[in-house]
Design a protein that fits this description.
Length: 56
């Protein structure tokens, strides 16, 4: 029994360490347009403030 234990432990665990690509959960792809609109709204001020600042 003692001689069999090291052999069992030396078995490579490649199939367990590398799951098939299909099993990997695909992250939900968010459209870049929605992200860009939110980013622009958060960074650029509304046009009304720009117009008031340009026309005192």
């Amino acid at each position: 029994m003692r001689s069999e234990l090291p052999h069992r432990c030396n078995i490579p665990k490649a199939p367990q360490a590398r799951p098939p690509h299909r099993s990997i959960p695909i992250r939900p792809q968010i459209p870049w347009s929605a992200n860009m609109q939110k980013f622009r709204r958060a960074t650029k001020p509304p046009l009304s403030i720009l117009r008031i600042a340009s026309n005192p």
